[in-house]
Amino acid sequence: MIRPFIKWAGGKTRVLPDLLPLLPKGDRLFEPFVGGASVFLNTDYPRYVLADINADLINTYRMAKGATQAFISTAKELFKNGNSKSEFYRNRDKFNAISDDEHMLKAALFLYLNRHCFNGICRYNASGFFNVPFGSYKKPYFPEAEIRLFAEKANDTTTCFIAADFRKVLAAKAINERSVIYCDPPYLPVSDTANFTQYHHRAFTVESHRALAKYLRIVRYETGAAVVISNSDTPATREIYQNYKFYEIGVSRSLGAAAVSRKKAGELIGVLDVGVSK
């Protein structure tokens, strides 16, 4: 199993043994919610379109693909003497202050924050500023080998990275009957406090899920593309995505720092029925 170089809440590494057999063959995989990219790294599609609404994440992937050595060198410098509270907050302030046009430094700082912040959480306040506190790890791991593997695969498959809402991704003219769409949107909460879903300063709500379900039905009907989703096993999930055949799995999922806090949570993988209508 190839591991991502970005830590990501809700990452799919643990469920890959259940998910991969349900992803059909195709010419191109579209992921509107790429997150940590573990599905990309562990599948063998000829082409990929990987998207996320988080522009910082997509910029980091673009730098890893297009300027691999420069990205590694820039990020590695930040790791050298960066494992202290003072350096962390200095780098966090820099990340929030610099222009999005400074693609390389922004990407290197994003990786630094991802590996040094509390539990690898990616969270922004209402103003769009990254606000996760220092993680106090003994020695954060620098994922050089993982970056190189990611870059190699992204270049070999001419992967396209898009910073966009799912609506734009699902409107792509390249989607056809040989395409596979895999969606792993922020999870519907099992309870009011059970899940963390604020990966971007714009929250993904129940209404967002309803809109996604509608778009996926339309795309399936109009293009014939295969559609697979994953989410938490809740009554709301089963109601919103009612046209899917569900497969139940149990995963260990927690955003607590201690492994002892991790408990089995119900999760669903859904495959959209062939005969679905708009």
TrEMBL record:
PROSITE patterns: N6_MTASE
Family membership noted in the UniProt record: Belongs to the N(4)/N(6)-methyltransferase family.
Catalytic activity entry: a 2'-deoxyadenosine in DNA + S-adenosyl-L-methionine = an N(6)-methyl-2'-deoxyadenosine in DNA + S-adenosyl-L-homocysteine + H(+)
Residues that bind S-adenosyl-L-methionine: 8, 12, 52, 184
Molecular function GO terms recorded: S-adenosyl-L-methionine binding; sequence-specific DNA binding; site-specific DNA-methyltransferase (adenine-specific) activity
InterPro entries the record matches: Ade_MeTrfase_dom_2, DNA_methylase_N6_adenine_CS, M_m6A_EcoRV, MeTrfase_D12, SAM-dependent_MTases_sf
Record EC number: 2.1.1.72
Signal peptide region: none
The name this protein goes by in its record: Site-specific DNA-methyltransferase (adenine-specific)
Pfam family, one: MethyltransfD12
Any one of the GO BP annotations: methylation
Keywords: Methyltransferase, S-adenosyl-L-methionine, Transferase
